[in-house]
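Convert to structure. Protein one:
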Amino acid sequence: MHPRTAFGITAAARPELARLGTGVEALRYDELWVNDTRRGDGFETLVPVAAATSRLRLAVGVVALSEQRPAAIAGRVARASIPDARLTVGVGSGASRSLDLVRMGVAELRNLLPDHEIAVAAVGPRMARLAGEIADAVVANWALPERLADVREHLELGAADLGRPAPRLVAYVRTAVGPGAAGRLRGDMERYAGHGPHYARAFADQPDQLIGIAVESGTAEEVAGALEPYRSVADTVVVRGLPATDDVDAWLEIARAAAVPTPGSG
């Protein structure tokens, strides 16, 4: 089975979000993922996208449980009024890195949001194993294909411990195309390295490498070739765009370059 294809953007109240959503849906992506930070509300960002699309699944990845309690997250989900079957709610430990916080948080969300898919972010092996026990999807960030294979091994072990099917592995793959692509990817890595010791450790375990896709030419063939190793190990590959400018046309340029061709399209 071919992995699901997804596109990822930053959360923001930018204009023309509906056009972004319809453009991504027209390119036959299966899902649109949006982050959630103090600078941008992921659920609010998805509201106009949900209204303008019909097939596209939507996901927020991820809300930090160290900053928001499950009841507050459930309240935000209710206010967004996105159909349950279309929305994945992603959570992570945030600044705490606590396994118990995530375990209890997911259990509470199961009671509050019984019809939603719940995703858990996992950087290290212990969190990946826990996510295998409790999550519907496991979100891996800043991981090369070899590291993704390790994450999959740990989440499958966690699932096997409880005799449940393994959750799907969702890989965020930072993707920049066109002039300056490598610089944008490197700059995002440097920014995340300051977000906490778990990210710094992940970069240290994968030293001296650009983690993601940087294609200066911007050609679809080259982007597809660079993404293939990720698609070979993950169940869902989120092409997390790194555009040169924060506007809909720049985001869609990356989405077009990374789209999987439909049969008979070329």
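Protein two, convert as well:
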Amino acid sequence: MSGSIGTSGRRVAWRCAMLAAALCLFWPARAGAAPKTDTVLLRNGDRVTCEIKRLQQARLSVKTDPLGSVSVHWGEVLGVTSPRVFEVTLASGDRYYGGLGWSGVAGDLVLTVGGGPVTTLKLADVTSLVPIGSSFWKRIDGNMDLGFSFAQANLETHWTVNAGATYRSSRYQLSSSVASQLTSREDADRTSRNTVSLNGSRLFTNQWLFTVIGQLQQNEELQLDLRTVGGGGAGKVMSRTNHRMIALYSGLVYTREQFVGEPVANAAEIAAGGQLDFFSPHNDDFSFTNSVVSYYSLSAAGRVRIEAQSAWRHEFLKDFYWSLNGVESFDSQPPDTQKRNDFSLSLSMGWKF
């Protein structure tokens, strides 16, 4: 009886944690619209009067009165102007601040302060535009997708939910994500897999960063009741352009894990990982993101854990996309009789904001 109560309690705790994480990701906020005083000049000759929201991953998001919020690939932009102050980030990692002007030369961006020109940059070198003074909510980007599959032969249903949100400022980046999978079959018990992750980074010059991480994991397929990971480290963005982003990082984490029928284990681990993302090279609205983190135990000699995630997304309608998600968990030394890895592949439909 006590074992069943403990399992039920853990499931309730996980549901509460997932709900709290979802509320943190998607708590609504009202934001007033800025005056439409910005201008975007496109390659086809169109001149759009709008409010520039941000440039990220080669997509320039703007808001117009007749069309609402729209986005355009950065490669289709010849010039932008705005009297507002922006933070402009280059592929080199250098940051500039000022109003946006156009010299009349296609592909040039003139930064202005007090109405006068300061410096001229190339649009092709610009990887990020963020209006200074934007509210907290306007600096957040996020997504949520849902997948479902059904097999009639054994009445198997498979649900997947993935959500994430990222806040960016001139010096800090905060990210959170939720990933949940639930599989049920007529001839077997339900199995679930849940992960909640939090990440905070302090950005420095030359693309260096210091990061702290926290993570909660549960995986019934691997008989993992709960794994808690917390720690920090340093990293560097090796390359950031309008087509790709490559980052490497390493650090030290403390891990506490509880497997079914096993005592609680605590260990210090060395963490090393990387991020490799690709974005739309032209007008095809797709992204391909990949992350992998390996953990090397300092107390159990030879034990290595690997967590890998990949997601391919293609936008088919404004702010809506198809997503193909792959997740792999590997443990070189799991408890006796337990599986060493768990891999899943899911197709889902999502919405980004």
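The chain has one helix and 21 strands. The domain at 38-134 is CATH 2.30.30 (SH3 type barrels.).
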